[in-house]
Amino acid sequence: MSQAPIFPGAVDAAGQPATLGVMGGGQLGRMFVHAAQRLGYFTAVLDPDPASPAGRVSHHHIATGYSDAAGLAQLASLCAAITTEFENVPAGALQTLAATRPVAPGPAAVAIAQNRIEEKAHFTASAGLAGVTCAPYAVIETPAQLAAVPADLLPGILKTARMGYDGKGQVRVRNTAELAAAWVELKQVPCVLEKLLPLKAECSVIVARGWDGAITGFAPQYNLHIDGILAVTAAYEGNMPSALATRARAATESIANHIAYVGVLCVEFFVIDDGSADGALVVNEMAPRPHNSGHYTMDACDVSQFDLQVHAMAGLPLPQPRQHSPAIMLNLLGDVWFDAAGQPQTPDWQAVLALPGTHLHLYGKLEARAGRKMGHLTVTGADVAGVRVVARQAAQLLGLPGLDALQ
Ligand code: ATP
Ligand code: MG
Asked: Is the model's pLDDT at 407 over the cut of 60?
């Protein structure tokens, strides 16, 4: 597929400046808007929330529902190309937009990421080529499938096929009785039961693929999740065994190529203990967009994941990013805005920002809630040891858990 490039700063015959659009106005949309505007594009955001983080910083904010016909028509009339910041955009909305505008990633790719059953089938057909498999699983859509679940999938995790994120829509089950109860708890919607695997580590790979099939991206990130939410990302040489890193990148490229993906794609992997020194890779899920685990690229690389998102959708050349600093990213959840007694507090930014190589990103959300992603802090430095020391100090000042798990 090819796409005529949309150049930043161009103005069409009707006087309309080159404008890029995004479905969804959260923090990922906001960082996309910042990257697009830096290059010289105008931006448009469609998000129903009048106070959405991206809507507040965009040239245009269309505050309608995602399936609103008038809102979609307005987005299409403003924009030369459109992307998405979250995978649960209604499939029909992207199809409507794609009828008249380049949409990257396309509706078919987003539909795969919306459904764990389709996603696993896609992984089996594509990541399998790089020797990477999914966790053993069974599809549960009917009582008969529930009754037929093989015993060796237990203990396991029952996950809804659709609309899961940050560990939501998941129940851990030890036996068939708990499995049956969990399916009732999840309202008997289509689910997958995954075997509970012995995780050594988790990692993710972010690539960008252009309309012409060119592909570029970043080395794998090492990720630490707490309570199903990303807490820490470590991005530097040696963060994971190099053979695994190479294989994870190959699997990700295969996953993107197999569906002629266009845009930024993040694939999440588990490293499981299989008795070998390195462990084995298992592919978990994909996000058809930039990812929380790639936020460090804004401060540690010469080209960020959001820059690649802009380049890919606009048909510009895809540069190979160069990481110039080792980095550790700490997610800042709303919990940081409350003290041990549950009273609201202002985090000690004065002390945190006095630490060398700290880069604070807050998303413009006015109300802090436990578990809500409010911002992140990236620590960069000349060497890994120094970055680790500062990341620990920052984590301590902010009361963040998880740093002890980093080697
Ligand atoms: P995300 O916000 O990443 O989209 P999600 O809600 O879609 O999250 P998963 O990524 O499937 O959920 O799972 C969340 C976390 O739960 C994983 O990062 C991992 O720590 C743990 N987990 C999930 N599946 C398994 C498994 N089969 N075995 C062991 N741990 C698992
Ligand atoms: Mg996940």
From this structure: no
Structural contact between residues 160 and 186, judged by C-beta atoms closer than 8 angstroms: yes
Domains, the chain, ordered by start: 19-103 (3.40.50.20), 136-195 (3.30.1490.20), 199-399 (3.30.470.20)
CA of 172 to the centre of ligand 1 (A): 11
| Binding-site residues, ligand 1, Cβ < 6 A | 135, 157, 159, 164-168, 170, 194, 196-197, 199, 202, 225, 228, 268, 284-285
Q: How far is the CA of 343 from the centre of ligand 2 (A)?
A: 30
User: Where does the pLDDT of residue 1 fall: very low under 50, low under 70, confident under 90, or very high at 90 and above?
Assistant: low
Interior angle at CA 389, CA 351 and CA 353, nearest 5: 20
Banded pLDDT at 166 (limits 50, 70, 90): low
Per-residue pLDDT tens for 228-266? 899 999 999 999 999 999 999 999 999 999 999 999 999
